[in-house]
């Protein structure tokens, strides 16, 4: 009975187990079924198992995120203060400290960051210890764009904030490039701020190489009433190359900004003799993309304005320009430029960017009418002297001697800090002496090498093609000149010097190739080596001056009385060439073969002291009485040349004639002026090839001994040697 009862009880327990209704495993099974029912709606139970798992995972993630959001919202994230300081210090590799309250949470979807007494240290080399300090920072950062790497601040409220922006002495590091201290300097990138309120704040900027310092105070002027109409005002002061400047302006943030409107910007700056006014709109307080601005600038020297960009351009005379200014794809674009510099107009476009942290200029500029005086500062003349003295401002007196070559030093170090591609065209040049037009310059500057290839222009109807390179990379600046003149009519070229265009068919072509060293035009030419050659092919030259140069008194008087003074001189061929060594140019050769004469020249000139010491004489091919057979001396300096048709030799002949007249008879007085007409005609092949003096030949193929050797008899200090003086007496001023 008991046994049976026990068996019955055991069976009942087993049945209960089978039904899952009286043991732990039974309860567990019911719990799982309940959990599935509670977490999984009926519609989800009908879905495939993988889909159910994915949806449950998403729900769990959502719940976890909601829990984090709820915890941060309730606690305001204050417990994250320590971890935030450590994380920021690690990422920036700068010490980050927060001395007061700290909040970091979602409110409700934007990230709210709030900190009091926050400090971010500067690198050890910086002048200021702190890069950023603020009594209070209150911001709202858009969370969703942050996932895609876009930093958009819905709102930023700064109180007592100070930012120190600095470059080191070598411009190899800046204070706003965080992380690895050996990392290349990065451009300053501001987050996009839609609205801002700033009180009692400011920033400072230091650039030792530009010699630029600036301190700017920023404050927000809040509107009364309930409207959101804050205006950010700023004012500042600083120095640029020891010259002070000031700036002021404002950024209005009207109600429309909140709805995606624009901010009205005004800026007025005065410094370095320049006044700049900027006005227009920005999409947001720190949003430059899509800016629509108008720039007006005026001042004494446009190059001083570009100093603010760390860019060196040639000096200019007083200027004024207007332009539209926009910012697109990290490029500042000045379009529709219109203005004047000096008495010349200027138009075109300019783009300024900073690829890889290096300033890059791309410009396309044009001038319809260029006053030659306005071009003076481009090559180193003082614009203030030009303003005060006109063309006379190009001449300076040094040790009692006039100098005309420009001496302003090239800003070589500044040229190494930026790159440029510039196209500049001039339709007409207003110059008294030389009719120039159609100037076309293409300039490329890269890593300190500036190439003007080509620099072309029309001169008296002939085309001048130039390639000039200035290399600032060596310790001493190296300049290479290659200037080519296509055949140009002498009548047009020398019209302002007494040449008659009618009847003058002669032309001239030439080439100048030289290399010099120095950081100014004068220094590069004073140290240059190379060659200059100008070729005169067959033609006529119609002018009174050629007769004076020949000093053939018989022919001159005869033509004077027969009214044939202006009969053209017939040129067979000619070359005027110089070899340049160490800045001293020696005739190599000067040889012009005409129908009646052979004109020869010796001597030369110096780029060192700008002195000229040359002589030109004409030997007749036919017998002539009353021929001086004496050279015309050309001396003085580049700025004050002198022509001396009565040379010492001619005076000596006159004395000899007078002595013979006294001792013998009056007829004997003309003997020293008789030209036997034994001049050796030139072989035109070497002449037209521009060959050196050593290669010149007579028509009989004989080497010429009357055209010099392309050397001078001056010592290195420019003084004439005693040997040179002897040669001068023997060779009619044939040395330099």
Q: What report would you give on this structure?
A:
The N terminus and C terminus are likely disordered. 27% of the residues are buried. A hairpin with a 2-residue loop joins strand 13 and strand 14. The protein has 18 helices and 35 strands. Among the domains are: 44 residues; 185 residues, no CATH class. It has 736 residues and is α+β, with helices and mostly antiparallel strands.
List its salient traits.
33-stranded mixed sheet, single chain, disordered N terminus, alpha+beta, two-stranded antiparallel sheet, 736 residues
Q: How many beta-strand segments?
A: 35
Mean pLDDT: 79
| SS class | alpha+beta
SS summary, helix count = 18
C-alpha Rg (nearest Å): 43 Å
Helicity level: 10-25%
Quick one: biggest sheet? 33 strands, mixed
Uncertain segments: 1-25, 223-228, 255-260, 545-565, 650-676, 714-736
* 3D shape: elongated
Distance between the termini: 153 Å
β-sheet strand percentage: 35-45%
